Amino acid sequence: MKEFSIGTKIVCGAGAVQTLRNVGAKKLMVVTDPFFAKNGLAQAVADAANAQQVKLFDRVQPDPTVELVAEGTAAVREFAPDMLVALGGGSAMDCAKAMLHFAGGNVRLIAIPTTSGSGSEVTDFAILTHNNVKHPLIDSRLRPELAILDADLLTGLPPGLVADGGFDVLSHALEALVAKNASPFTDALAKDAFCCAFEALPASFSGQTQVRGKVHIAATMAGMAFTQAGLGVCHAMAHSLGGMFHVPHGRLNAILLPAVISLNGAAGEKYAALARTAGFGGSVDTIAVRNLKNALVRLRRELKLPETLAQAGVEPREVWRRADEILAAALKDPCCQTNPVPVTEAMLRKLLEEVTGRG
Ligand SMILES: NC(=O)c1ccc[n+]([C@@H]2O[C@H](COP(=O)([O-])OP(=O)(O)OC[C@H]3O[C@@H](n4cnc5c(N)ncnc54)[C@H](O)[C@@H]3O)[C@@H](O)[C@H]2O)c1
Ligand SMILES: [Fe+2]
User: Fold this and answer.
1) Is 1 a member of any domain?
2) Quick check: is 47 in a domain?
3) Within 13 Å and on the Cβ side, how many CA atoms surround 302?
4) Ligand 1 centroid vs 252 CA: distance in angstroms?
5) Which 8-state DSSP code applies to residue 109?
6) Which CATH number goes with the domain that contains 71?
7) Is residue 15 situated within a structural domain?
8) What is the per-residue pLDDT for 263?
9) 330-351: burial string, b at 16+ Cβ within 10 Å, e else
10) 120 shares a domain with 165
11) Which of 206, 216, 272, 278 can pair with 116 through a Cys bridge, CB separation 3.0 to 4.6 Å?
């Protein structure tokens, strides 16, 4: 049996932030990182919502820790808002989702992503870091009530963030497509998100801001797909390595994704169909899958992303010293449960060997 539901209303287009005028917030808390407190966007968002009282929680850092979430939870309990707006990338949105989860109550949540990557604005996930391990918190009540996709917020996005987020989108789409809980609904979202992001990313990376709205929508579509279909071994390893070495999440997915395609051989038919839809061709499935993998490697190069952990600044010696810890954390990650083929320690070790690189 398959299940599909959409719990989040989506508003998109240039100037979509103005929707906040109609949400009826009385006591509003804006959760963001220091960057948006400094550049004035957090205040502009609060002004648009026109609430009677506003509180800014602007302490979010990339990959939020449970300690930060505890601080935010205390701030929610003290201020007792009726609405919370999460403004920023996956880290700000995940922090806000977790703050509300632990604070309890019925505070409404609106998400305004400023990167095109995590899809957190529509997912049941919040990724929290504790003692250098990333833990996915998964609960359908984490899904925001409203997601505002305003491409105007992306004009200043640096190319590095376009690339990191872009590969997060591609990995969400590709993992959701072949995941155990995939359905015809998630397949349609995953395929379209993949093709759209793949096509628009080079232009977005080179600074053509008019295409950024397309990648932004693809990010949300990929989020809708994976929150229902599940993810896989690429994300399990990205969580494990990200918690330990603090490399940005999307960059780790870029390093892992092409290698994961080879490991998930049993999903070849679906990978091959996607390769043909995306225009990579392939007369037989094995060639189409190879074309998909090669296309991702070429795009990774074009977006100036690292090909190995070593190129991302992680010492191979450190990787091998902590290999058992890395593999154990990845094996425990819930994303393994929806990978299309059973995940074993031997499989993860092979993946690690392939992506570590030379010092
Ligand atoms: N909840 C989910 O479903 C889900 C899914 C995938 C990833 N994640 C998590 O999301 C996090 C990554 O999120 P992310 O890639 O969006 O990055 P991020 O939120 O960690 O932000 C990275 C940096 O980008 C800056 N930034 C954000 N928007 C900007 C803009 N418009 N202009 C300039 N700078 C900007 C931020 O200030 C920050 O310093 C990771 O912790 C990852 O584990 C969550
Ligand atoms: Fe991700």
Assistant:
1) no
2) yes
3) 17
4) 13
5) E
6) 3.40.50.1970
7) yes
8) 94
9) bbebbbbebbbeebeeebbeeb
10) no
11) 216
Cα-to-centroid distance, 118 and ligand 2 (Å): 5
Q: Which two tokens stand for residue 101?
A: 């989860």
Report the distance separating Cα 193 and Cα 188, nearest Å.
Answer: 8
Q: Are residues 61 and 203 in the same domain?
A: no
Q: Hey, what are 206's tokens?
A: 């080179």
Query: Which ligand has its closest atom nearest to the C-alpha of 170?
Result: 2
User: CA-CA distance, 70 to 13, in Å (whole number)?
Assistant: 34
What pTM does this model have? 0.97
Encode pLDDT of 213-249 as tens digits.
999 999 999 999 999 999 999 999 999 999 999 999 9
Last residue of a domain, one of 154, 169, 204: 154
**Ligand 1, closest atom to CA 94?**
1
Pocket of ligand 1 (CB under 6 A): 33, 35, 62-63, 88-92, 94, 114-115, 117-120, 123, 125-127, 153-154, 156-158, 161, 164-165, 168, 249-250
From the CA of 154, which ligand is nearest? 1
Token digits of residue 99 = 């703050």
Ligand 1: residue whose CA is nearest its atom 28 = 114
Question: Is the domain of 173 the same as that of 133?
Answer: no
Whether 218 and 87 map to the same domain: the answer is no
d(CA 311, CA 355): 10
Q: Which atom of ligand 1 is nearest to the CA of 34?
A: 37
User: What backbone phi and psi angles, to 5 degrees, belong to 321?
Assistant: -65, -35
Distance between Cα 168 and ligand 1 center (Å) = 10
The answer on 101 and 53 residing in a single domain is yes
Q: What is the pLDDT along the chain (359 residues), one digit of tens a residue?
A: 888 988 899 999 999 999 999 999 999 999 999 999 999 999 999 999 999 999 999 999 999 999 999 999 999 999 999 999 999 999 999 999 999 999 998 999 999 999 999 999 999 999 999 999 999 999 999 999 999 999 999 999 999 999 999 999 999 999 999 999 999 999 999 999 999 999 999 999 999 999 999 999 999 999 999 999 999 999 999 999 999 999 999 999 999 999 999 999 888 999 999 999 999 999 999 999 999 999 999 999 999 999 999 999 999 999 999 999 999 999 999 999 999 999 999 999 999 999 999 97
Give which of 323, 343, 327 is closest to 335, Cα–Cα: 343
